[in-house]
Design a protein that fits this description.
Protein name: Acyclic terpene utilisation N-terminal domain-containing protein
Number of strands: 18
Pfam families: AtuA (PF07287)
Strand order of the largest sheet: 11-12-8-7-1-2-3-6-4-18
Strand content: 15-25%
Shape: globular
């Protein structure tokens, strides 16, 4: 399998971010790598998650010039000079709750930098929040939803408008709640001329997007284990790139001269990531079947994926509501030295007793970090078992977490927790408490014909 980049019929696409908190430096290395390649090239930035979108919508409510991904410009500004000079379109869902606001800011920055001819396309139509006030209430809205608690209402849309934007000459495509793999699907349909009516080719495009969407997760990030899965230079994993032939030949590789690795194992892990049914992964663009896929490691960070199949897209689209109405309280106190665990256990019992007396309607969870803080259950059975065998531990932290609608009750419980300084077991220290609004999400399904998407240009 060649790694010759001179074949101008091969499409090259890389994702420079896998979530809103990713590293912009890796995206710049990706842009520079893509600039050395020939053929159709695209760079995508995946910067959106369900709660991220709700948070962006809240910021938009406070400031109409905001509402896009907080770090969108940390990613865009370093890479755009290279991408624009090399003819590499950039596609991102970092427009989040307000792609138009992002476009206005980006237009200003591009003009300041002398890129007056750069074209920005916004993909719109995924935001349905304005429909919630209509009468009668939309039939796709879950019956239990309290409208006053809705802060965001978006539908996962597909690749159609991304492809259209690229065909009309977009240099940067700003999207909101487009499905993560769809950014690649739109680019591939544009670059290779694949038809949206071909479910087999669409499935290969979906696999490309799915393999790339978490960025460095497929190049050794979230894979490394120093004993079983050692990864070269894990502090600097490179962004993934997929080379895609006109007939669907798919090679996963990564940015040159970077850390991390691409192996059959990292590819298999990502191929199955967040897939509930490998034979039927539902997306707005089609249904992907990887149940018979072959993953072939050619060495030198090059892995081929074959035998991906597909079916026509589903009749409905998935939507996501961002909801307020709940509050999250958290508190912690540390115990160290001789009998630290016994003292933390006593503090836990005190907090449980006080909570039952002061805030009986709350259901706090109490973990002891160092003994059981992840695998515990709401009823406390697991931590009780661990406490029976945890004698000898000399560095632990009692953690309280609680979610409820009653903000006042949570604050009262946190205040009482802080009194452990002078009312609790000996040697407790480092108490921290905080109380924040808790954003939650709820899914719904909507007839795909009820959603209209369109482009706006800047």
């Amino acid at each position: 399998m060649t790694d010759d980049h001179s074949d101008q019929t091969t499409l090259h696409i890389g994702y420079g971010a896998g979530f809103a908190g990713d590293r912009p430096q890796a995206a710049l290395a990706l842009a520079r790598d893509l600039a050395t390649r020939r053929g159709p090239r695209y760079l995508a930035l995946e910067l959106l998650a369900e709660r991220t979108l709700a948070q962006c919508q809240q910021r938009r409510h406070d400031d109409e010039t905001s509402g896009y991904a907080l770090r969108l410009f940390d990613f865009l500004e370093p890479i755009l000079p290279t991408c624009l000079a090399s003819g590499i379109p950039v596609i991102t869902n970092g427009g989040a709750a307000h792609p138009v606001a992002a476009a206005h800011r980006l237009r200003g920055w591009l003009d300041d930098q002398g890129f007056h001819n750069a074209r920005i396309a916004c993909v719109l139509g995924d935001d349905l929040v304005e429909q919630l006030g209509a009468l009668p209430t939309p039939d796709w809205l879950p019956e239990n939803v309290v409208l006053d608690e809705v802060v965001s209402c978006n539908v996962y849309i597909g690749a159609e408008q991304i492809q259209q934007a690229l065909e009309e000459g977009a240099d940067i495509v700003l999207c909101g709640r487009v499905a993560d793999p769809s950014m690649a699907v739109g680019a591939i349909r544009h670059g290779l001329g694949w038809s949206a009516e071909d479910p087999e080719l669409t499935a290969i495009a979906l696999a490309t997007g799915h393999l790339l969407e978490c960025c460095t997760q497929i190049t050794g990030g979230y894979f490394a284990d120093p004993i079983t899965n050692p990864v070269p230079d894990p502090a600097h994993p490179g962004c993934p790139i997929i080379e895609l032939g006109t007939e669907g030949q798919l090679i996963v590789t990564k940015t040159a001269s970077t850390g991390g690795m691409v192996s059959a194992r990292t590819v298999k892990e990502q191929l199955l990531y967040e897939i509930h049914d490998p034979a039927a992964y539902l997306t707005p663009d089609g249904v992907m079947d990887v149940s018979r896929a072959q993953v072939i490691d050619h060495g030198n960070n090059r892995v081929e994926v074959r035998d991906i199949h597909g079916y026509p897209p589903p009749a409905t689209l998935k939507g996501n509501l961002g909801l307020t109405g709940l509050w999250f309280g958290e508190a912690g106190i540390s115990y160290a030295g001789p009998r630290a665990l016994a003292r933390a256990q006593l503090a836990r019992e005190i907090v449980m007793t006080r909570a039952a007396e002061l805030t009986p309607n709350l259901a706090p969870r109490l973990d002891i970090v160092g003994v059981c803080s992840v695998l515990g259950d709401a009823g406390g059975e697991v931590i009780s078992q661990r406490l029976d065998t945890g004698d000898g531990v000399e560095d632990v932290r009692l953690r309280l977490g609680v979610v409820d609608r009653d903000r006042g009750a949570i604050q009262a419980l946190l205040d009482d927790f802080e009194s452990l300084y002078t009312n609790g077991p000996a040697g407790g220290g480092g108490i921290r408490t905080h109380l924040v609004e808790s954003l939650r999400t709820e899914d719904f399904m909507i007839d795909r014909h009820a959603v209209s998407t369109f482009l706006a240009w800047y």
